[in-house]
Write a structure and sequence with these properties.
This protein is mainly alpha-helical. The chain has one domain. The chain has five helices and no strands. Helix 1 runs antiparallel to helix 2, helix 1 runs parallel beside helix 5 and helix 2 packs antiparallel against helix 3. The longest helix has 24 residues. InterPro entries: CarS (IPR032690).
Length: 160
């Protein structure tokens, strides 16, 4: 049970750290991962909200939490990276679909960022696959439920 909670918290850190750091640093260090480049379709590859600052802060946050809870530092760093790569992949797909950065894509906005790192946990720890998937889906559902609340509290810029 404690392991599931720790992994859930790591998902929250990976996805929440970039939001918190963006609020603290505002426009400082917010270099876009895509470098402002456009795809052949004329749309941004990822969008301005996907920054190196967010990628680093989410990965570092997971690394620190992993070490603090007794996981290997490399596991923590990879866990955070995979979660954020899932988020980057979602953004890339949304841009190809013609959706704006703030557009909601239920499932696509939540599942890649939660299931990719949980596959790492399944492989690395090892964690039963069903448990890994359940934690990922629970996090995705929590994201759908709590994101509007965080938006109303002024913590998030979009309600999803």
């Amino acid at each position: 049970m404690l392991l599931s909670l720790e992994l859930f918290v790591m998902l929250a850190i990976a996805n929440g750290s970039p939001v918190v750091v963006a609020r603290l640093f505002r426009d400082r260090g917010n270099w876009p991962v895509d470098g402002g480049r456009f795809g052949p379709d004329g749309r941004r590859l990822l969008g301005a909200s996907k920054t190196w600052r967010g990628l680093i802060s989410g990965s570092l946050g997971c690394l620190v939490f992993a070490v603090w809870t007794g996981f290997d530092w490399l596991f923590g760093a990879l866990f955070g990276l995979l979660s954020l790569f899932g988020d980057l992949a979602s953004s890339f797909i949304k841009r190809r679909m013609g959706l704006a950065s703030s557009a909601r894509a239920l499932g696509l906005d939540q599942l890649p960022e939660s299931l990719l790192p949980m596959l790492l946990a399944w492989y690395w720890i090892p964690l039963p696959l069903g448990q890994a998937i359940a934690i990922g889906i629970l996090f995705a559902l929590a994201n759908v439920v709590f994101s509007p609340l965080l938006y109303r509290l002024g913590i998030r810029r979009q309600p999803h």
